[in-house]
Amino acid sequence: QSALTQPASVSGSPGQSITISCTGTSGDIGTYNYVSWYQHHPGKAPKLILYAVSNRPSGVSNRFSGSKSGNTASLTISGLQADDEADYYCSSYTISSTVVFGGGAKLTVL
Amino acid sequence: EVQLVESGGGLIMPGGSLRLSCAASGFTFTNAWMAWVRQGPGKGLEWVGRIKSKTHGGTTDYAAPVKGRIVISRDDSRNAVYLQINDLKVEDTALYYCATEGYSFGYHALDIWGQGAMVTVAS
Fold first, then answer.
1. β-strands B10-12, B117-121: how paired?
2. Which of A5, A35, A43, B121 has the most CB within a 10 Å radius?
3. Based on the number of CB atoms within 10 Å of its own CB, is B32 exposed (0-12), middle (13-18) or buried (19 or more)?
């Protein structure tokens, strides 16, 4: 099972919106709505920010939103803030009963 | 407080074996599917494998790159999950996290994470 494909880096200015794509295959994203997104600040544990494509856990800002079309899922962060600077990973359940992550996207807030 | 605490990391020579432990508290461990995720130096997150709850058979699934070299087990009486890695390779060097899979929200979301245990494989 190959890793999901994410851009290596994205950037935006405070207040702007950015979108991070996550492309898989019919063996993962294309078959299941079991896409999750994680925020990972260096030195800390990853934090779940979206599950089931677009659902936010309690306490996660509504500036984070998700969508899916075909084999590609997307994370949008609106109203960028300095603290949003982190690595973002997508994951999906697969037809092999495993979970696969994306390679991660480093978000830089300019 | 909901918590996962990994232990057992260290410096191991190639070809050796290691068992990591993860102690859980603050939630109903017996109901939790437990996963291991690793992050190599400068690399992204990699799902390594999981063990289901006894209610769901207590079976395991492993990622293809490590299948055959790792064993995940659990001891519900101790609220603990374990990761045994055999025939360690330099590329197994990573920070190993344990996490719950689908506990709070389902959908195989990894929702509770530990702080990780570092494993370094070098001669």
1. parallel
2. A35
3. buried
**What is the rounded distance in angstroms from the CA atom of residue B29 to the CA atom of residue A45?**
19
Q: Which two tokens stand for residue B91?
A: 């590329």
CB contact under 8 Å between A33 and B107, yes or no, is yes
- Which of B45, B62, B114 is closest, CB to CB, to A101? B45
Taking contacts as CB-CB distances below 8 angstroms, the residues of chain B near A89 are 44-45
d(CA B44, CA A105): 9
**Closest residue to A1, CB basis, from B64, B101, B104:** B64
Return the number of other C-beta atoms located less than 10 Å from residue A78's C-beta.
Answer: 15
pLDDT for res A6: 98
Which residue in A has a C-alpha nearest to residue B36's C-alpha? Answer: A99
**pLDDT tens-place string over residues B81-107:** 999 999 999 999 999 999 999 999 989
Distance CA A107, CA B16 (A): 37
